[in-house]
Amino acid sequence: MASATGKEDDSSWFTVRMKHPMSLDALLQLDTSTLIAEMARLEDSIQRLVRSNLDILQFLQDEEAQSDPDSNLPLIEARDENLVTIETQKERIEMIKWCITRKTRRNGADNPHYQLDYSDSSAPPNIFTSPPNPTQSQPE
Questions:
Q1: pLDDT above 60: residue 42
Q2: Mutual angle of helices 32-63 and 73-104, in 10-degree steps
Q3: Which residues, 6 or more positions from 50, have their beta carbon under 8 angstroms from its beta carbon?
Q4: Where are the domains of the chain?
Q5: Cα torsion 13, 17, 23, 27: sign
Q6: pTM score of the predicted model
Q7: What integer pLDDT is reported at residue 111 of this predicted model?
Q8: Which helix (H) or strand (E) is 54 found in, with range?
Q9: Residues 108 and 114: beta-carbon distance below 8 Å
Q10: Which residue would you say has higher pLDDT here, 129 or 38?
Q11: Which of 72 and 134 is assigned the larger pLDDT?
Q12: Residues paired with 8 in a beta bridge
């Protein structure tokens, strides 16, 4: 599979799966402190989105027996949008980590901040049921 740069995948290239506001090339132009600040901003955003989805789930569970399911559709759509945003932001954090490694020629093993693992979230599994991948074409 080819990476975002058009080269075949190997350990020196990062494969981008989703759409992002900045390319790897643009991220590599930023200084390391800016990249670290952006990573912190994205981590905070992910935490807020997870909390929002927990609130939405709690509301839907509380209202489930007494409300019209169609009235909850906007909340379900918001939750699904949050899930896509969370996945996009997780990937952007990985892109930034890759860029920092490329820029510093360090893998971050000496800094626990770079060892964050988002593969297992503490939120209940039904909150993280993945919607369709936004980069895949949808049937018309």
A1: yes
A2: 160
A3: 86, 121, 123, 127
A4: 24-116
A5: negative
A6: 0.64
A7: 60
A8: helix 32-63
A9: yes
A10: 38
A11: 72
A12: 2
> How far apart are the C-alpha atoms of 81 and 22, rounded to whole Å?
20
Q: How far is CA 76 from the centre of its chain?
A: 19
Exposed, middle or buried, 84 (CB in 10 Å: 0-12/13-18/19+)? middle
Separation between Cα atoms, residue 53 and residue 83, nearest integer Å = 8
Q: What is the dihedral of CA 32, 38, 40, 46, to 10 degrees?
A: -150
List all residues 6 or more positions away from 125 whose beta carbon is below 8 Å from its beta carbon: none
Q: What is the sign of the dihedral through the CA atoms of 25, 26, 32 and 36?
A: negative
Look up residue 31 and give its two tokens.
């200084």
Residue 8 has φ and ψ, to the nearest 5°, of -65, 145
Total Cβ atoms within 10 A of residue 57: 17
